[in-house]
Amino acid sequence: MPSxxxxxxxxxxxxxxxxxxxxxxxxxxxxxxxxxxAQLAKLSPSxxxxxxxxxxxxxxxxxxxxxxxxxxxxxxxxSAYAYGPLDRDVDDFGSVYDTYIFMEFIEGEDLAKSWGxxxxxxxxxxxxxxxxxxxxxxxxxxxxxxxxxxxxxVTDIILEWSTTSxxxxxxxxxxxxxxxxxxxxxxxxxxxxxxxxxIDAHKHGIVFTHGDLRPHNIIVKNGRVTAIIDxxxxxxYPDYWEFVKAFHLENFTDDWASHLLGVLTPYYCxxxxxxxxxxxxxxxxxxxxxxxxxxxxxxxxxxxxxLSHPSCAVPD
Length: 316
Fold this sequence. Notes:
Elements: E1 6-12, H1 21-26, E2 30-35, E3 38-44, E4 47-52, H2 57-69, E5 77-86, E6 96-104, E7 109-110, H3 111-114, H4 120-138, H5 172-185, H6 192-199, E8 206-209, E9 218-221, E10 224-228, E11 235-238, H7 241-249, H8 256-263, E12 285-286, E13 301-302
Helix pairs in contact: 4-8, 5-6
Protein name: Aminoglycoside phosphotransferase domain-containing protein
Domain Aminoglycoside phosphotransferase: 59-262
Organism: Venturia inaequalis
């Protein structure tokens, strides 16, 4: 192990130079946000930097993979590297590494901020753009495993607490077994047989998936999608995964959910397999509103008929 921190470069675009952490800090970047422990800073009018212990080089790998194989709007990657080891003890795990991802800054506004201001025509165009991009992603030739690109592990938060494996998984059955084990380990009560039977009820194709398709990760300008960002959880997953994750992650307070149903392929439960009804204790509803400010139950939007059976096993 080196006695001082080193820069370990994953990628450097032609014509670009490595900007060291010291140079980055000395440039006095504009701090924009802290997203799940990763910092976002604007280095220049054209450069955004995502960095920190919780930034991931797998996100950079996913971005390159998608940019090289599709026309999906992904911020151009300038460079990505790990920096360390650092003498920063985190929960007694010893030395850590920081990741730095230098990418194109995309002009526009995230959809979480702009959706309510969009006209009906703009919403239709944004939905059309997203459907095109997601269809192209799902059309990529299958890799033959479940995980991130280049035979990488599953980076979805569903396996954050896994004590066995994070893949890559050679079969959906192996993936399901690990989901069940992880869920059961974090849940009180005798739910093991219930969960395992539930997620084994269907078999699916494996397609490339963004895995975090929430409005915050969609950049729009002038009524069009200019970028899809935050590719850390992307990879090869069962074909229901994009739909389930999009509806699981978001708290719907407007008509975004209705448009999303036209963007993503819905995965039905009741109509496809009558036995699923036995495994659903109550209708799955997406509550309009949140917390103490939520609107009354009668105003909830019921999406239970669209939810794939495995969605029931996705923990909070």
